[in-house]
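Design job #97: recover the sequence.
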């Protein structure tokens, strides 16, 4: 068993700075868990606490049924892959991968078997005699992962391992990491600020903000039903449109759609859930937009618009029964792109609308 359990884990730095404010979650045996959030949210600090590189102020970290709070990193049976590869430049690929095993006193024949097996899995066997300077960024990252694999640990920890790679290579490497984890069936915790990376890699997704967990769940469940407006705007690209709705507007705009809220609320609509008027059912929410900007990305087009005055003047405060103004992003098929300055009508089906409390801290309804 190699599950990882965090129980009310906290980290307070000198001066009273609370980096981690009490976090509880469990990563099951063989699961791939991704910690995602903006810079400074505490995700790397939390990972380093699991690794033993940061002390814990309070709470417990349990790895494989053993509380490891007071156990040194080398004795926690984990292996970590860092953002900067951390390879020894004077050593060959083979020796970089074998170094940790030699320090542990493992017999040479067993080291050789482990290194060559890992190299075969990662398809770097022809590179075993090369030095890191002779490798590309993606190849160096494979060596760093190979060094972790040969350890055969209970848990893999990844701290933004793809941040130094270009966009195309990042896509290829995240696919390789997921395939590798499924093949090895090793419990893994992965830190990233890239929500696309998080969505594609995770079995369980932990969305963090300000040293706290905003939501935990399967990636698609979080995408479909975000618990807060932070999650709604952070998960998804482009982000969800969020519109403040005054209490006296609910009776006009949303009541017809049978959407109820106790007072003021925030309405969320994902860009991809809009369609040009007429493509959605009559029970959908209808908005008129003035097109301000367009981004063409091949098969799709992102339309940035604002709700105009009826007489064509600038955007103003909402009238009774209307949603308030603000920039709205709509994702349309590439061939359906309107022109800048054009007025368009878009609609979204009722079951694609999300309602949150005014402060954005809780979801209203399902």
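Job complete. Output follows.
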């Amino acid at each position: 068993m190699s599950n990882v359990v965090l129980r009310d884990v906290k980290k307070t730095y000198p001066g009273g700075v609370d980096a981690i404010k009490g976090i509880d979650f469990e990563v099951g045996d063989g699961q791939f868990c991704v910690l995602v959030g903006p810079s400074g949210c505490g995700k790397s600090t939390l990972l380093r606490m699991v690794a033993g590189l940061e002390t814990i102020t309070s709470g417990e970290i349990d790895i494989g049924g053993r509380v490891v709070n007071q156990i040194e990193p080398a004795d926690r049976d984990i292996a970590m892959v860092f953002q900067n590869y951390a390879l020894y430049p004077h050593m060959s690929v083979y020796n970089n991968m074998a170094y940790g095993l030699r320090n542990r006193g493992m017999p040479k024949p067993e080291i050789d078997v482990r290194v060559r097996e890992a190299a075969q899995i990662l398809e770097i066997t022809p590179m075993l005699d090369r030095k890191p300077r002779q490798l590309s960024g993606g190849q160096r990252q494979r060596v760093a992962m190979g060094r972790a694999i040969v350890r055969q640990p209970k848990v893999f920890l990844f701290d933004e391992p793809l941040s130094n790679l270009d966009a195309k290579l990042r896509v290829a490497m995240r696919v390789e990491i997921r395939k590798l984890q499924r093949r090895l069936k090793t419990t893994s915790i992965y830190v990233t600020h890239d929500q696309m990376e998080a969505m594609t890699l995770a079995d369980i997704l932990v969305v963090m903000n300000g040293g706290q967990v905003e939501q935990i769940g399967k990636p698609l469940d979080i995408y479909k039903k975000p618990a807060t407006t932070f999650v709604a705007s952070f998960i998804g690209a482009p982000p969800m449109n969020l519109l403040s709705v005054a209490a006296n507007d609910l009776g006009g705009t949303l009541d017809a759609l049978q959407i109820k809220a106790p007072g003021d609320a925030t309405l969320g609509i994902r860009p991809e859930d809009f369609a040009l008027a007429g493509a959605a059912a009559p029970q959908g929410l209808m908005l008129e937009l003035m097109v301000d900007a367009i981004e063409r990305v091949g098969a799709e087009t992102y339309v940035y618009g604002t709700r105009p005055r009826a007489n064509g003047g600038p955007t103003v405060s909402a009238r009774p029964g209307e949603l308030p103004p603000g920039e709205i992003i709509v994702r349309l098929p590439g061939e359906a792109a309107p022109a800048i300055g054009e007025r368009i009508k878009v609609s979204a089906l009722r079951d694609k609308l999300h309602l949150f409390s005014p402060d954005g801290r809780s979801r209203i309804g399902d």
